[in-house]
Amino acid sequence: MRSSTRRPHCRWRGRAAASGAPVRLRRCCALPARLRPLPPPASSRHGPSPASVASCLSHATLRLRSTMDVLRPTLIRIGGRIYRKNLVQEQAYQNEEEEDFYAGPGDCADEPCDTFVVEETEKGFQCRVEVPSPLYKYIIGKKGETKKRLETETRTSISIPKPGVEGEIVITGQQRSGVISARTRIDVLLESFRKKQPFTHFLSFALNQPVIQEKFLQFKEEVLEKCSKDHGISSSLFQNPAKLHLTLGTLVLLNEQEIQKACDLLQRCKEDFVDQIAGGKPLTVEVAGVEYMNDDPAMTDVLYAKVHMKDGSDRLQVIADKLVERFVASGLMLKEWDRVKLHATVMNTLFRKDPSAEEQNSTATGKSSFKERESFNGRNILKLFENFCFGEVQLDSVRLSQRFSSDASGYYATSGQLTFS
Question: Which of 50, 163, 171, 320 could pair with 16 as two cysteines, CB 3.0-4.6 Å apart?
Answer without folding.
Answer: 50
